[in-house]
Structures are given as C-alpha cells and as structure tokens.
Amino acid sequence: MDQQYMVFLLLLLLFFLFQVQLVAAETSSQDFSGLQSLTQSWTNKPPNWVGTDPCGSNWDGIRCTSSRITQLKLASLNLVGQLSSAIQLLPELDTVDLSYNTGLTGTIPKEIGNLEKLKSLALAGCGFFGPIPDSIGSLKQLTFLALNSNRFNGSIPRSMGNLSNVNWLDLADNQLEGPIPVSDDQGQPGLDLLLKAQHFHFGVNKLSGQIPPNLFNSSMILKHVLFDNNKLVGTIPHTLSLVTTVEVVRFDRNGLTGEMPSNFNNLEKLSELYLSHNEFNGPLPDLTGLNSLTYVDMSNNSFTSSDYIPSWVTSLESLTTVILGDNQLNGTFNISNDYSNSLQLINMQNNVITEYEPGSQTISFDVILAGNPFCLENGVSQKSFCQVPEVNPSYSTPQNNCSPQTCSNSQISSPNCKCAYPYGGSLISRALSITNFNTSDYKDIEQSLMDSFGLHSLPVDSVRLSDPVKNSSINNFQFTLSVFPSQTDRFNRTGVLLIAFVLSNQIYKPPEFFSPYFFTGSSYGYYGGEPKKSSSGHTGIIIGAVLAVLAFLVLAVLAGMYAIHQKRRAQRTKEKNPFANWEQTKNSGIAPQLKGARWFSFDELLRCTNNFAKANTIGSGGYGQVYQGVLPSGELVAIKRAANESRQGAVEFKTEIELLSRVHHKNLVSLVGFCFEKDEQMLVYEYIPNGTLMDSLSGKSGIWMDWIRRLKVTLGAAKGLSYLHELANPPIIHRDIKSGNILLDSHLNAKVADFGLSKLLLDSDRGHVTTQVKGTMGYLDPEYYMTLQLTEKSDVYSFGVLMLELVTARRPIEQGKYIVREVMGVMDTSKDLYNLHSILDPTIIKDTKPKGLEKFVELALRCVNEYGHERPSMADVVKEVENIIELVGFNPNSESATTSESYNVEKGGDVIHPYVKEDFHYSGSVPSVKLEPQ
Fold first, then answer.
1. What CATH number does residue 448 fall under?
2. Are 912 and 695 in contact (CB under 8 A)?
3. What is the pLDDT of residues 383-416, one digit of tens each?
4. What stretches pass through the bilayer (predicted)?
C-alpha cells in the first residue's frame, strides 16, 4: 500500500508541475515537444537550452512568433547528430539554418516537405549525404535554398520545378548526377519553371547529358548560371541568349563541343564568361557589344582564328581580363592603338601564333604569349611577354594606424590592435574578376563586410582578410575571413549565430567583382558573455518558489527510485559477464584484455542504427556492411558488422579490439567498442567523415589534395606509426600500412586505421616476430616476405610505398608495373624534379614546382631500401617530413583550421565509406591478401 501511495503522490506532483509550467511558459507545448524530439540526439547544444520555454527564455538560435517557434538559426555551432523526421513537428518554421555544422550527417528526411511555411532552408557546409528528397518540391513558399558543400548524390529532383518562389538555388559542391531536369509534355516539372530564380548554382557535381534547350526562356530573370565542373556534353543552347538578365555564366570544365551560339552578344548585362576546359571549336565567338563584360576565360578548347584577333578583345570598355590560352589560334597577334583603358591582361599562351605586333604605343596591360612558335625565336624567348609570371597572392588586412598587441591565450591582435578571439572561416568567390589581387579590391570587400555587419547591428569591431588562394582546379578564389568582436574579447553564441546567418543566407552583398560567393564557417570555441537567464515577465517569485519546491520533491522521489534501480542493475551486471561466451568460440583464445573500449550488446547497436536500416548504411564490401550510428550520448560512430560468410578469425578480431583499446593518439583511429554476441562480430569506431587517402588520391572523395596537404597527411600518418613503434608498450607493428588504411578527418588530419593484422613486439622477440606473411601486395616488405621475420622496418617499407603513391597518385601495382621500380627507372638526380615529371601526379606540379619534392622522394626511396637495417626509423621519417614542411614555409605542428568542405573540387565516382577493409574503392585495385609461407 505504501508503494502505491508513493507512486500516486509522484504522479500527482508531476501533473501539478506540468500544469504550472504550462501557465508560466510562453512556448507552445507542441513546439517544445517537437524541438525536443528533433534535437534529442544532438550534442553541443547551447548551454542556455534549459527548461521548457525556448521562446520565453530566449534560447540561442531560436526565434518565436506568438509562442510558436518560427526560426532555427543554428549555423556554426559544431552540432553533431542527424536531421530527423521530427522536423515536421515544428510546422510554423519559416527559417532553418544549420550551416557549417560538419557533424550533422545522414539524409534529409522526406518529412521536411511538410513545412509548408518554410521560406529559407540553409544546410550549407554540413555532412549530409544521400539523395535530395522529392518532397522538397512541396515547399511552395521557399525563396532561399542552399544545400551546397555536402555529399548529396542521385539526381536533381524534378519536383524542384515546383519551387515557384525560389530566388536562390545552390546545389553546388555535391555529387549530384544525371541530366538537368526540365518540364515535359506529360506535365512533369523542371528547372525551366523557376521564373523567379536569379541564381542557378550547380557547379562541382557530376551532372551529365546535354543542356536542354528549354532550360532557358525569355521569362526568366537569372543572374548567375553556374554549371562548371560537371560532365555535360553537346552544345550551349542558343536559348541562353533569351535570358537577358544574365551576369555570370560558367560552363567551364565540362565536355561541351561545337561552336558558340551566334546570338551570344544579346546578353548585354553579361560581366563574366567562363568556358575553359571544354572541346569547343570553330572561330572565337563575337562578343562585340557586351560592354558590361569584365572577365573572359575560353582557354583549353580548340578555337581557331584567321590571322587576327577579334576586335572586341581590345575594344570592350569594361573588359579587364581575356584568357584564350591552349587553343589553336594562329597567325599574327595584332594589338591596335585603340584599346580599352580597363584592360589588364591578355593571356594567349600555348597557341600557334607566329607574329606579334604590339602597335606603336606602349601598352599598359600584360600580354602572355609563352608557348607560341613566335616565342621560340632567338631574341624573343626571354621577353617578358614570352614568360608565364608566377602569381603568388599575398595579403593580410593591415593595422589601422596602430601597433599590433602581443596577445596570449590563443588570442589574436585585430586590425584595431585589440587582443581577441575572432570567429572566421573561408570566404570563397565563384568568380575570378579579382584575379589581379588589387589591394583596393580587398579594402572594398572589408568595407562592405563592415557595412553589412553594422547595418544589422552585429557586435563586430573589425575584420581581417588573409591567405588569398586561387584554386586553379575549379576556378575559385578564396581567403580566410576573421571577424573580431567589439567591446569584449570574444563573441557569445548569439553573436556567432547572427554573423554566420548573414553570410550563409547571402544577406551580405559583396562588391560585384567578388560575386557570386559562399562562406564556410569554422566552429568557435571561445564563447563568452553568455546572456543570463531571465524569467518571463509573468513568471514571478511565487511561481519560481513553487517550481523549486516541486522539483525538489520530485527529485527526492526519483533519487530514491533511481538508487533502488541502480542497486538491482549492479547486481544483474555482476551476474552477467559480457565475455562469458567468448571462449566458447573455436580458436578464439582468452577474452580480450580491454583498456577503455566498451562492450556493446547486440540490442544496443540495433537501436542506434535504427535496426540496421538501409538508410544508415555508409559502406559495404567483402567484410560486410558498415553502418552509421548515433549513441544515446549523441556521439556519431561507424559500426563494422561482419557478414556471416566472411568473418575474420576470432583471434584477429580480438587482436584488433585489444590493440585499438590500448593505443590513444590523435593520428590513430579510436575504437569506441565492440559486440561479440548472438553470433555477431562488430567493431564500433569513431566516425571519420572524409574517407580514405586512397579515395582522395583517386579523385573519388572529391577532396583536392595539393602538395602541402599531402605533406601534412604524410606527417600525420608517420606520427601515428611512430607512436606504435616507439611509445606503445609493448611496441606494435601494424603490418598493413596502405592508402586504404589512412583515414582523413574533417580537417584532413590523417588517422591510421585497421589493426586486424597487427603484431605486438615483446621483449622476448629480439626485434622481430617470426610469423606467416600477411599484408597487401605492392606494400609488402620483400625482406619480410623472404625471411618471415616481421620488424618495425617492415612498416617503414610499406610507408615508403605510400609516400610514392602520394606523389604519383598511382596504385602500387598498376597494369603489372610496380611503383618502386617505375620511380627508380626514370629518376635522374641531375635533372629538374629528378626527371620525375612523367610519373608525378599532374595536380601537384600543374601551377608551380612543389618545394621539397626531391627530398620527399629521396626519403621514400630510403624507406623502400631492400635491406631493413638501411631504412630509417619512423621517428626519423617524422623529423625529415617536418623539415620538408618547414622548407615549404608551413609550421609542421599547426593544425588545419579549415574543414574539408572547403577542399571539395572535381568529384568523380561513388563515395565509399572509409571503414571497409577491402581495397575495392577504385577499379583495378590491389587486393588485400594473406600469403601463407611455402
């Protein structure tokens, strides 16, 4: 009877507490419940999300109208989790901005189409993947849609043609494929129906097929038409000239052919035209009359000319830059005396021009004719116009008439010489009008940023632009933006959210030469000045006291019940041994000796993967399936579940568990736990978002690996391996180092993975372990193969092969050719770049000679020496790679502050998740094998 009375009292108190809260709260109970459901699994939520009244308590990022939640502005909060179907439980939403939260992953739920009042949806720079749901076409009120810089795949939904009010449509920097959808006779919608759209941003995807002629019509008001870096073929339709509002056109880096439309000069507002890296032919298009045109790039095609350059090249009054290199232009390059004062550069390199007539007057712009027959003549080859100038942009906002402060605690001196913690990220232009890096242009951008922040009353003291970089692979230009707080040394969450929202929703309008742009924000770790919680106007002292008393009573009752529950649970745990069935498995050995890793029950992993739902599958292979899961704590994990027919041996499974549970280093993948019950073998890893190094080198992950990033990956992997050899106790030999076992996190830091074949080097082993040969062909140490003696130098050999793979982007064994022999065969230390041009990855030598490459190759070849005692240790490798990075001009100990989304470039192939062991990521791959001794 006492127990029943206690339960009744508890229920009565809870009911009363609920009623009091309903009276006191300003937030609709339906919306609060919906918000709780949506964010239940999220981590890193703002600390002032306390209580049950987000509207009345002014929760960060939540805005309400008449007790209903109408806006979620949560950009750049480092949120981790998924966007669940519970989003539909907030039906009054008109704005959702979750941009720059790389930890938000998974697919977009189809239920998002139920938000009938949604006007702005920004999910830029997150980790979302999978197809864009058709239901997004139901958002009829939508005016702004930014899904760029994620990993969406599949086709562009036809239903987007129903977004009749959309103005901004950005799907760039994803993996979308298939044709461009247009309406048809059967009433199917398409993009041609978006008559209010001004922005078509579809670059850096895998769209294919021809550009449909009916994609464009005279009723459109498009300003930006961006389809660069896709797989489009055929010709540019003449209907594009019907859209007379167009200002920027990008069809560069596709497979377009034929001649240009003859009516192209109808685009009177056109300011930038990018057609490079296609297969256009015929004469150069007539652009006469396009007096708004400032920048033209038609390089890397097959355009021809007849003994003259079209007059528009020098006469268009606004034109600053003309790039016509790598075509078939021939004859005489004649510059008349009548040319525009705006002209800054004409680049005609690598054509077949035989004469150059600069005219009688001194020209005030640059001319580049390098690579033409004319420049091979004696006395001409050394002329400035026969050279390709090195462009190394360098800029950082100068101090504002003050001396920089010496700051501490990771603070930075602002342009106004105040020590503070800035918020920042990468500001990226999809146009290249700023190519000439004019200082006044930077000042214009800085001033426009300050004007925009001031207009919206944001707490900004100053901004700094730095580290300008031209990404020639995708024709983008970017620099680092740092925004400094005013009146204090750091932003609170509200300040960061507002700044991020202004940039993510294109509220900031840059100067014309920098438009179109996008921003990728970094997480901010220095929050301060958090607003104090204030009670609602009608929530007085009496209600607060009542709530406190009730809360105390409820907590007291719950504490008693919890103590009883925990006591019983502890007793059950004591009686249940999670390893009880381990030794029943044949040849499994003793149970694993764990140091930090957690045992998961099968039912736990079933729940966190939604019953191993197909939607949670992020990879598959001979090993089995890999699932993304969310633990109750909100932590994202990757769960590798062995298939029935291909489980590894219990001993190897145990080896990987034990080794991963006892090693802890930032360059080693972390094991969260494992499951070994109900005839299942599952490993639970930390979630690593950017796949394997092999995927990046092959172009399948879409991550652009320039020289410095390859050096940093080399250093990170070397540090992880050196830790295993030098600091693990006892030392560990990995035995399967390869590009498929190097993972890249969100900052492109390298993490060594897959310890299934690893061996401990005990004191009694005398420096080696005699064991059967296992590993991956192409990476195997020949000394180990011949003697069966595995040493730390066996890992060094594999690492040397990996280094050669990094500089060549070739597989270790490709078409019967072994990478080590190939490099040695062409190497000549007396020649430039050691005569390795033919075998190096063109990506890293395209624009400039990579510093330190020769030393890098020398180090790699020492690692693959035939005899182990002549190879360096991994500690030595770390030191030498650090020296090479310092030679390049970077701090080898610095961490990348830019997330991987800013590196996305030409994307090809399906993204395969990194946690699958087999090397099936790209065709003709080297198989992982286990070689038994003869």
1. 3.30.70.960
2. yes
3. 888 988 876 678 899 999 999 889 988 899 999 9
4. 541-564
